[in-house]
Design goal:
Blueprint (H helix, E strand, L loop, with lengths): L11 E3 L2 E3 L2 H19 L10 H7 L5 E2 L6 H17 L17 E2 L5 H4 L9 H11 L5 E4 L6 H8 L5 H15 L9 E6 L2 H10 L5 H19 L4 E4 L2 E16 L6 E3 H5 E2 L4 E2 L3 E2 L6 E2 L5 E2 L1 E6 L4 E6 L1 E10 L2 E6 L2 H11 L19 H7 L10 H15 L4 H12 L7 E2 L1 H6 L5 E3 L12 E3 L1 H15 L10 E4 L12 E6 L9 H4 L1 H7 L19 H18 E12 L3 H14 L2 E6 L1 E2 L17 E7 L3 H4 L6 H14 L6 E2 L2 E2 L7 H14 L8 H11 L1 E3 L2 E3 L1 H13 L13 H14 L4 H11 L12 H8 L1 E2 L5 E2 L3 H24 L8 H13 L3 H8 L4 H5 L2 H13 L1
Parallel strand pairs: 3-22, 4-26, 5-6, 5-23, 6-22, 23-24
Antiparallel strand pairs: 1-2, 7-8, 8-9, 8-14, 8-17, 8-21, 10-11, 12-13, 15-16, 17-18, 19-20, 24-27, 25-27, 28-29, 30-31, 32-33
């Protein structure tokens, strides 16, 4: 048998067709996929690769290493299944989620599934399970278009087959939060990603694992690899060549800029007496003091038989070895035997396939190109590891389980390179090993690379995979594919819930970092539509915003009305945070909640506002109901309050943390108005009400409690909570913008009227650095423009009528000041509130060209720091 033999050797039915077994099913759909490839190649995100390699990597129709043409057929089957589940009482016909999951989520990463394979970013599946159990019911269809390693799919199936530990923990949480346990049962998942490497990992996480068969096959292959490659890792023990190398520390060779002689960095910088690697070290020849920056790397010219040409490479030598002999582990300095062995290996021919793919231009790829003259994938490996790795891969390719074993193989790819580094403290003091792995998120090759034996890694990776096996699916169900999130092969209104962890600006250059494993797979990412900020690929902030907007627009299209989306956010950059919000709202979603998602290593802490920027956020939003989506714009008054009615229904009524009621920032009147404005502007509707009239109407139509607005029914529920919990948190407010300053003063004056001198000290203490380019008004200016002073010099919050008058006066003054920016040649600093007022006036007058003109006078970084500026520019630029 030359193909995947996984779990089911008996008859199977797939998309209404019966097959003798899974192998026959796979053969049939591979033939069908081959017929469809010419048409699929026209779609965005189709990977770079030959037809045969794409077909070989695929396990259709459940997994395709390209856009999947069968997704809608599965959706149709799953929708029919819902009727059966409902008839059996496993789901409800009137299921509706009105409030977001507002509880912070904190889970660790120490579970077998998370640990089985590394990737740049992953959300542990038990965290995602919390959201799925809240927003969906058994049989619902979940989507993630930036799936990475497919943890959304793992979570979907785990809702029907949870570990005892996860089930107990979540049941306890649900009883505390909701007074009941969740509705357990499997959800269906569609997982897409632009990267073939990520999708291959996701496929293995989301399909059954025959542990005994995988174990037997890997052990058989391991013995064959050992027979062919054991001599490559031989070293001496007590003078005899009986040791087996586990890993080798290599060292760059430097050239002294004074005497011109070469020296080994390890020998010069290693201080065994003080147990450290010195930052400053002496040339052993002339005793000149050096650092890594002042010394020059030595290079040598060698013949590269893969390229058929001589190449100039960084010169390095083995210096320290960890090895096994006679059943024990030892360490030693590299000896002449070890150096001679390397020389002999470098002359060996690699008889199996090894990737010679040239590195693309980019941000991460510049480091190995410039620092070490590494321009091709095979140059990331020592000759020894390249030969052994290619041998292992060749055995996998000809095995009965090629794609299952590629999960193990790709887990070794990066650790087998020269990017591996030594952990110096652990080298001297112990405590977790000194084989530190590569520096995540980079293609950086250190001055002391660590060569990890391929033989050392195989059984370790097998063990990790087998530990995850019991938590993986028992049958084929979830769908995994390669494709762009801005061109989804999914019908309108098909999806019940979206959980997604998208790329965030310049955080991680996925396609560049995935070059190494994808070169082995022979199917590479088509990064044309990759949503990142990458100067090396000529992708700026505006490109990123456009790609994310297109992707979320597709999410909006395929999601059913009234359903929810959760976006995991991992970036501390304010511009990227604003871009994500803009992309979400431009697509038509309405943001309802921002909460903590702590993955056990850094991450979210005290989130106090949806406009705050923290490390990790869970942003929850919803697609409005059919009623809101279809309201008559001409009936503007009805549309405004229909929107607010529905939005208030989608906000949490109360959030309790440590026995204290939390302020829900989304219920603040200013944020409610901002959500309304965003929705109207994104849909191209004229804004039917100004801020003052909105505030007046809100106070008449809704109930205000503790600075938050509720419907009458919600207010009763909130009052019940207030009787149970007397303590309420005050929302911390620092002054980083004019809007912050107005809110800060209002809060102070609502406590009691105050004189200017009563406010100044606290004002100065609460000031923080404003957004780049924003001109912050002085306290007195904010008081004069927004508040009233009595005859005794005390400042007061104006009543609604006085406030309306103040707003009108301020608006006229701001519009005059806005003309200064319109006429300016360039804008380095501006009063952002003036720009907001001016842009709104231009928008109402359909003067989109002025908005674009003013924005293009600003630096990109200045524009990116303010979500309102981004919103108007994004809309206006699409109209000009």
């Amino acid at each position: 048998m030359d193909d995947e033999q996984v779990v089911n050797d008996g008859p199977v039915t797939c998309l209404g067709i019966e097959f003798e077994n899974d192998d026959r099913r796979r053969d049939f759909f591979r033939d069908e996929l081959r017929k469809k490839l010419p048409e699929l190649r026209l779609l965005d995100g189709f990977p770079i690769g030959e037809d045969d390699d794409i077909i070989a990597l695929s396990d259709p129709p459940y997994y395709t290493a390209c856009p999947n043409p069968w997704i809608n057929s599965f959706v149709k089957e799953w929708e029919a299944e819902k009727n059966r589940l409902q008839a059996n009482g496993l789901r409800s016909a009137d299921f509706e989620v009105k409030e977001p999951y507002s509880s912070d989520v904190k889970v660790g990463k120490s579970n077998p599934v998370y640990s089985a394979h590394t990737y740049h970013t992953k959300v542990p599946h038990p965290a995602i399970m919390r959201y799925l159990l809240h927003y969906t019911q058994p049989g619902d269809i979940v989507f993630d278009g930036f799936c990475g390693t497919g943890m959304t799919g793992v979570a979907a199936q785990a809702c029907g087959n949870p570990s005892a530990e996860d089930k107990a923990a979540i049941n306890a949480e649900w009883k505390s939060l909701f007074g009941k346990t969740p509705n357990w049962g499997q959800r269906h998942a569609i997982c897409g990603d632009l990267s073939p490497y990520a999708s291959m990992i996701a496929y293995n996480y989301n399909t059954p694992l025959n542990s005994s068969l995988v174990k037997a096959e890997v052990q058989r292959i391991f013995q064959e690899v050992k027979e062919e490659c054991a001599d490559l890792y031989r070293t001496t023990h007590n003078g005899k060549p009986i040791g087996q190398i586990n890993y080798v520390v290599w060292s760059d060779v430097f050239v002294c800029n004074t005497c011109g002689k070469e020296f080994v960095y390890w020998k010069a910088a290693l201080d065994k007496e003080h147990k450290c690697l010195r930052d400053e070290f002496y040339c052993p020849h002339c005793h000149t003091m050096h650092t890594k920056n002042t010394a020059t790397r030595a290079f040598e010219t060698v013949y590269d038989d893969f390229l058929g040409d001589s190449v100039r490479i960084n010169k390095s030598v083995p210096v320290y070895i960890a090895y096994s002999a006679e059943g024990k582990r030892y360490e030693k300095d590299a000896e002449q035997y070890d150096i001679d062995l390397v020389d002999s290996i470098n002359s060996l021919h690699c008889k199996y396939f090894a990737p010679t793919y040239e590195l693309p231009d980019g941000y991460n790829t510049q480091q190995p190109k410039k620092a070490q003259n590494i321009n091709f994938v095979h140059q990331f490996y020592t000759r020894r590891n390249l030969i052994a790795l290619s041998t292992f891969y060749a055995k996998i390719q000809s095995s009965a389980l090629p794609n299952k074993l590629k999960f193990i193989f790709t887990g070794m790819v990066n650790r087998s390179t020269k990017m591996n580094r030594i952990h110096v403290n652990n080298f001297f003091y112990g405590g977790g090993g000194w084989n530190a792995g590569h520096l995540k998120g980079t293609l950086y090759i250190p001055a002391l690379p660590m060569e990890t034996s391929i033989l050392e890694q195989i059984e370790d990776k097998l063990s990790g995979y087998l530990k995850a096996g019991p938590l993986l699916p028992k049958e084929y169900d979830n769908i995994v594919y390669v494709g762009s999130a801005n061109a989804l092969p999914i019908a309108d209104n098909s999806i019940d819930y979206v959980f997604t962890d998208p790329p965030f600006g310049a955080n991680i250059m996925y396609s560049e970092l995935n070059t190494l494993p994808e070169a082995w797979l022979k199917v590479l990412t088509n990064n044309k539509s990759e949503a990142i900020v990458n100067p090396g690929q000529a992708k700026d902030f505006l490109f990123y915003l456009r790609m994310m907007s297109e992707s979320y627009s597709e999410y909006f299209r395929v999601l059913k009305p009234g359903k929810w989306m959760t976006v995991e956010f991992s970036n501390t950059n304010a511009g990227i945070w604003n871009s994500i919000q803009q992309a979400i709202t431009r697509a038509g979603f309405v943001i309802a909640n921002v909460s903590a998602l702590n993955k056990g290593q850094g991450g979210m802490r005290a989130i106090v506002s949806p406009v705050a920027v923290k490390e990790d956020l869970a942003i929850t939003c919803y697609k409005p109901s059919e009623k809101i989506l279809s309201f008559n714009v001409g009936d503007s008054d009805k549309g405004v309050w229909s929107f607010i009615d529905e939005h208030l229904e989608h906000l949490p009524v109360s959030v309790i943390k440590d026995g204290v009621i939390q302020c829900i920032a989304e219920r603040d009147i200013r944020i409610l108005y901002d959500r309304l404005i965003s929705y109207y502007v994104q849909h191209g509707y004229p804004v039917p009400i100004d801020a003052a009239d909105f505030q007046k109407e809100m106070k008449m139509r809704y109930v205000e409690r503790d600075g938050m607005f509720f419907s009458a029914e919600q207010a009763l529920e909130y009052e019940d909570t207030r009787r149970e919990y007397s303590a309420i948190a005050t929302l911390a407010l620092f002054i980083g913008s004019e809007k912050d300053g107005i809110d800060w003063v209002r809060r102070k004056l609502e406590e009691s009227p105050k004189r200017y001198q009563d406010l100044t000290n606290d004002w100065i203490q609460d000031l923080v650095k404003p957004k780049k380019g924003d001109t912050m008004p002085e306290l007195m200016e904010i008081l004069n423009e927004n508040f009233l002073k009595d005859e005794e010099g005390y400042w007061h919050v104006p009543d609604i009528n006085d406030q309306t008058q103040l707003e009108q006066i301020k608006r006229k003054r701001f519009l005059k000041e806005f003309e200064v920016y319109v006429k300016a040649k360039s804008i380095k600093k501006a009063r952002f509130e003036v720009l907001h007022v001016g842009f709104k006036e231009c928008y109402d007058n359909k003067d989109f060209a002025t908005i674009v003109s003013v924005c293009e006078k600003m630096d990109e970084d200045m524009l990116a720091t303010d979500s309102t500026l981004i919103r108007y520019y994004d809309i206006a630029s699409s109209k000009v």
